[in-house]
């Protein structure tokens, strides 16, 4: 224990997860550009797949008939599935309010979900634009959410019961309750209504489960409102979930996000695990571990990689100022024969691939670029989590955070 | 020796190549979707990269300053570079004559080159359409070819001397003479003029070389005209090249291609090696090995993979009727939990990835699809070449060919 930070082990039917841990996102039963062998080489402990996407394609029944998600994607390690609620809502909500980032999430990976309110999502902190002519693509009622598929316009309905049924068919080790996810655009009154619905749905999810081998996590909502977060943490924390996830809007700044955790986490039963949905920036991982989070998931490491943004340690120029990112497309790498990060043990940095070569692969759009970059970013985050665990055990998390947060401000 | 077929070993500064061998194409210093580790696991012996593409991007001087092509792409095995002539010509010719396939080759992989006249390239056997309003993008004269970059419209010139200089800077183990490549659309008179130019350029390439550690192959041209092929084979075969490549138009049918080889190969010095440019279909590999070819290159296995066309053996339904291809997107694979080809030893077939999962990856456009499919197709061809070598040693090439060519005609 280092402040609120803690180390632990989550035992699942597909192996143990040393926490704090980061779940790599494999929305559609595949981590973009990586195979399960790559995941193992990178030290990945757990993958998060998405119910919404797999429900639509290939369909939960097909996955079940093929032996479940583990066999389907040939990954025998732990898997989490998100409940699908975030995607069903955010599609309707994003299009309705014209929140830019949401619409652009499809058909890109979105599994991490619940990012509508993360501090880095600046687009979501603007005032909603009323677009009365726009067709609403998702409608919520007390029973569930009715939505239109982003793939073919077909109509579907997800409820607490169907979400659990789909997640049981998929067969992940950890599944999530079906919740209504709000954004920073929602006011206190609406956030309260959504919270109450989420609480009723939480009980329904518990009632709906039929399998005994999956851990079901309840989701704490309440936006950036202290009274609602505390109410939700107490309520959800009082239900017989195996773990808890912090979802929904985390406010409009990192300070807001920290406060949300400081209000919620201490009210959750300490013997059960706590997941933070959709957060994965280097600084945020350090800050949120210090506030008692055990597991994370986020598309950031994999999506950044595909955009040529490679994570680098302070030794290689990473710092809060550049968000620990190096833009490999930059012309100054054209003749750089060195690795992305000399301190990194990943297959890309150790495999003789220079910054110049990676730049060439990105400039020419070679498919290999995505795999090499993703291998690097994922390994980078796995190694960071390993350092975090060691630091917590040694009572040195603050020291480790200072090392990253005071990183040299030379360009990466 | 089995008919004209023969086994051998090509020694290069980066290792030996057991022949007959198939060179996987890595046009822009990367085999699409595969890393050098993947290539080694698949049993790849040699990679072919392209001078035209690397000259334009990142530039030969940059590759040289970074230690040459082997270090640049982190592949320490043998490399061949094509001379760049085919691409420079085909771009101009294809746009000029409206030959569909050529234009679509950019910016896709094209390294195998010299495919303008391969029998499978049906587009090229149509009559040329005169398009007088269309700007000519490549102009050939006795000195070389002046062309416009397909990337940014900048003007460039390749000559026998500059092609060799670029290939020396890149540093491949085997380099190719700069030739004028004709298509089935060219008549006897033009094909003769191009042949004579190719012959003059062959001498200039030999004169231009300055490195002693690269094997330089001369290129036999002459289209599908017997007199020209024989003349070219005698002329090029009489020059002090370390090996020979059969380039240009191979006619309009498999029978034409076989005849071109039957005219040319016996006139080449038997102690030196013979490469067939741009051929890689299963049937063609078997037929051309039997006609004395030692090495091949072709984009087919890698490009087919990215299109979801997976190569399958007769045991898995492959036959000449389906060109040994299985369309993994087909709905009938949706619930197929078995591997692509049970007889295949590749990482995809042995890794627990079912036909159903691969179909899902292709249907959803997951990047992992391309790697798993390419690993399979490349391994498939490598294993075929291994069987070919064993068959030749045992005097059983004909038997092996019958096994493939009489493959069961059930759907793959």
Outline of this structure?
The structure is a homodimer of 412-residue chains. The first copy, chain A, is of the alpha/beta class. Chain A contains 16 helices and 15 strands.
The proportion of residues forming helix of chain A, as a percent range, comes to 25-40%
How many helix segments of chain A? 16
**Gyration radius of chain A, in Å:** 20 Å
Shape of chain A: globular
Query: What's the quaternary structure here?
Result: homodimer
Strand order of the largest sheet of chain A: 3-4-5-9-10-11-12-13
| Beta-strand residue fraction of chain A | 15-25%
Could you explain how this protein is built, in words?
The first copy, chain A, is α/β, with parallel strands linked by helices and 412 residues long. Chain A folds into two domains: 8-298, TIM Barrel; 306-405, no CATH class. Chain A is 39% helix and 15% strand. Chain A has helices spanning 36-42, 51-56, 60-65, 69-73, 85-97, 100-104, 160-170, 188-208, 226-237, 254-264, 282-289, 300-306, 347-350, 355-364, 367-393, 397-405; strands spanning 8-12, 15-19, 21-25, 47-50, 79-82, 138-140, 145-148, 155-158, 174-176, 215-220, 243-246, 273-277, 295-298, 309-311, 325-327. In chain A, the strands form four sheets. Chain A has an eight-stranded parallel β-barrel with strand order 3-4-5-9-10-11-12-13, surrounded by six helices. In chain A, helix 1 (36-42) runs parallel beside helix 15, helix 9 (226-237) crosses helix 10 (254-264) and helix 14 crosses helix 15 (367-393). The two termini of chain A are 33 Å apart. Chain A binds chain B through residues 28-37, 53, 57-58, 62, 65-67, 71-74, 107, 334-335, 337, 347, 351-354, 356-357, 359-361, 363-368, 370-372, and chain B through 28-37, 53, 57-58, 62, 65-67, 71-74, 107, 334-335, 337, 347, 351-354, 356-357, 359-361, 363-368, 370-372.
């Amino acid at each position: 224990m280092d402040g609120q930070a803690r180390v632990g082990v989550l035992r699942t039917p597909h192996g143990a997860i040393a926490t704090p841990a980061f779940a790599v996102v494999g929305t559609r039963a595949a981590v973009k550009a990586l195979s399960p062998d790559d995941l193992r080489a990178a030290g990945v402990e757990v993958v998060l797949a998405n119910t919404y996407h797999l429900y639509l394609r290939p369909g939960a029944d097909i996955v079940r008939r093929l032996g479940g998600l583990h066999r389907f994607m040939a990954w025998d390690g732990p898997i989490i599935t998100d409940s699908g609620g975030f995607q069903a809502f955010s599609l309707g909500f994003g299009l309705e309010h014209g929140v830019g980032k949401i619409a652009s999430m499809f058909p890109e990976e979105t599994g991490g979900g619940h990012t509508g309110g993360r501090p880095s999502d600046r687009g979501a902190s603007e005032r909603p634009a009323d677009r009365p002519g726009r067709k609403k693509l998702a409608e919520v009622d007390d029973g569930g959410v009715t939505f239109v598929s982003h793939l073919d316009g077909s109509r579907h309905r997800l409820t607490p019961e169907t979400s659990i049924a789909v997640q049981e068919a998929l067969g992940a080790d950890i599944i999530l309750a079906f919740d209504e996810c709000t954004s920073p655009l929602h006011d206190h009154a609406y956030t309260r209504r959504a919270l109450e619905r989420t609480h009723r749905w939480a009980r329904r999810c518990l009632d709906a489960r039929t399998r005994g081998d999956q851990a079901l996590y309840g989701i704490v909502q309440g936006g950036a409102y202290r009274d609602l977060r505390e109410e939700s943490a107490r309520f959800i924390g009082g239900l017989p979930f195996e773990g808890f996830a912090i979802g929904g809007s985390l406010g409009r700044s990192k300070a807001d996000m920290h406060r949300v955790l400081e209000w919620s986490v201490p009210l959750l039963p300490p013997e059960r695990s706590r997941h933070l949905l959709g957060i994965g920036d280097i600084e945020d991982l350090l800050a949120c571990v210090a506030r008692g989070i055990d597991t994370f998931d986020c598309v950031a490491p994999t999506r950044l990689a595909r955009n040529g943004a490679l994570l680098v340690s302070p030794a290689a120029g990473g710092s809060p100022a550049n968000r620990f990112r190096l833009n490999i497309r930059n012309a100054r790498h054209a003749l750089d024969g060195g690795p992305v990060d000399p301190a990194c043990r990943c297959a890309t940095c150790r495999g003789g691939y220079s910054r110049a070569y990676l730049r060439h692969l990105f400039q020419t759009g070679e498919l290999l670029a995505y795999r090499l970059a993703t291998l690097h970013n994922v390994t980078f985050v796995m190694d960071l989590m390993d350092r975090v665990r060691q630091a917590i055990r040694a009572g040195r998390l603050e020291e480790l955070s200072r090392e990253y947060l005071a990183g040299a401000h030379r360009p990466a």
